[in-house]
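Record type: ASSEMBLY
Status: queued
Input:
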Amino acid sequence: MKKALTRQQYLDLYYFMRLNRAVEDTMVKLFRQNKIVGGLYSSLGQEAVSVGTAYALEKKDWLAPMIRNIGALLVKGVPARDVFMQHMAKYDSPTKGKDGTSHFGDLENLHIVSPISMLGDLIPVMTGVAIAGRYLGQKIVAMTWIGDGGSSTGVFHEGMNFAAVQKAPFVLVLENNQWAYSTPVKRQVPLENLADRAKAYGIPSYVVDGNDVVAVYTTAKEAVDRARNGEGPILIEVKTFRRLGHAQHDPAEYVPKEMRAYWEARDPIALYEKFLTAEKLLDANSKKEIDEKIEKLLSSERDFAENSPLPPAEFAAQGVYCTGDDCHKVTPKWERPLAEVTPPKSSVPAVWTVKGFGSGKASGGGSAPIHFGDTEKHEENGNADQEVPEAVAEAIQAPAKPRPVKSTSAKATPKKSAKPAVVSGKSPARKARR
Amino acid sequence: MPMKTNGAAKANGSQAVAQVTFLEAIRQAMYEEMERDPAVVLIGEDIGVYGGAFKTSEGLLERFGWERVIDTPISESAIVGAACGMSYLGLRPIAEMQFIDFIVCAFNQITNFVAKGHYLWNAPAPIVIRGPSGGGVHGGPFHSANPEMYFVHTPGLKVIYPSTPYDAKGLLKAAVRDNNPVLFFEHKFLYRRVKEELPVDDYTVPIGKAVVRREGKHLTIISYAAMMHTSLEAAAELEKEGIDAEVIDLRTLLPLDEETILASLRKTNKCLVVHEDTKTGGIAGEIAAILCERAFGDLDGPLMRVTALDTPVPYAPSLEEYFLPNKEKVLHAARTLAKY
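Status: finished
Output:
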């Protein structure tokens, strides 16, 4: 572990890992008291992944957790009581008892998208979040997680590929905890490093020790910064180990003893305490303070959760549809001038143009607003009046493509010297003869 | 196909313009909604440079730019998923399925992610998923589907299946402005076959409201999409035989306009449902159940159905014609029903 963070950052990482573990320990107790309604999934031994990656995000950024990312939710600002109440199906929980576990979100304030149990679906959804944020000028990054098992789904591929072609500001954390329920990673994917999958999408990737929270954080921070700067999506493979079974019911006897012993000796919190102590960032007193702070906090959070009622039965029938503005006002938060996106100032120039398309054939020829690919009306650098945000322009324009040819108003004088449009399937030379 | 269904264009006092096709009505709706609201974006395969497989988005890329008209890889799950994610930031994406048959590739995203979000975690997803559907154009088993009932069975979605250019435009605009995920089916047989004068002014057609296309007193024919036109043709024939049929165009399948159906049934006491979807699990069964629950005493005959066969859509013209409902089949059923 290399020392490069501020003292506060080091201590934040420690606090959130400890909080993550304590929240889950509390839930194990609740589970044994039959107070958890459904299954209980554990991230024991994986706390450095959730905490280290989510800690790299800014407040305005968006994340979508998976089932073992309670730590990411805590970092993002979710109170422990919400996590408890979700698992206990309480009426005061974020979903008011309609769903459990980490299946909840907050569009308004914390910018959290709820997962569903079907794996991989969050990847295109968060890609959509990322490109919407870019369009709105918000300069956000979207992050989600996927397991080694979840990386086998079809929608993983669809989502990563789409994120890549869009150069979306999106970070995927591939949390390789070695086991997909009972299936070892080798039977899931015949690759040593799952990060290799990034090559197929032409995007950068990292492999990082998931039990080293500083390494996880610094890698995630670099990835988030790169994504924010318009470099496109990034995949981080985080190698870790799922210490408990798939859920509480599963003793995970299929896990080899030596494997378990290896990873148990590399407990991320114990490793980090050793580092912090050696760096004189943590001593017995400050550790005791944190112990007490967490204990006090969770005691009151747990009390609150236990005292919350179950939802009234008839609540089951409510809320299937949004009933309109009184229910939700759906409006984007623009952080770029609307003039950039409001016609006729199209926000992003065409990368290439194709003669003849958009000439309104299907519409009787009369009412197509501006005919796409009318090269007579195109000229280079015709975008003086159109400020295209750099990140957007870079994101959309593939570097290998010829320079874009801009459309201007219908009154523009044709320029003989204008660089000809590139027509797919036709050579530029042929086009230039006209 | 001759058709005169609207009248609303003149009724609301708007100045009417040239006849437009169903296809052009769709394009106009998207164009006008994008002009009206920069939060409206399009996402789909070949919708940008190419203007869509049926040219419904022709000219829109040039007008609105690459961020608002998003060409995607062949990835229906990613299209719907990304549209959903975009809606979480307040955008209103219109996602195109190049053919509606491919919507099932995004089935999980639609039924588990998009449809359940508002109920489970208070997350509205104002997206429209639209595309060309239906048979009768010899598209074969994978380009002719009517998959609406998969989704009518999914709480949280709205499902629209219009039959006229006026309704298509007005309902698509209403769908874009709705805060819920709306599936919008466009019968491709109608794309270029029906034309209508549309108002110049902005208008919407309310989601969830059926319309009586033809008043009658002897029996009610309930239909939607292309079969609505078949039903109207059959009703014209029946009139010559002294059978006065009322024709209801459902327009929206979810939520279903039960009141319009019931009001008509209470007048005619007989009901025939005509749909191009296959028989088992089609909307006709649902309507039969509603009538039994709510108007059993008003029924003077059995609810009858004219639907496609319970098979995939076959390719050969002879097979497809046998598979599909048609005017003759409607007439036969209506005559039988009228005798009760």
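Annotation: The first helix of chain A runs from residue 7 to 32.
Annotation: Chain A has two domains: 7-317, 336-434.
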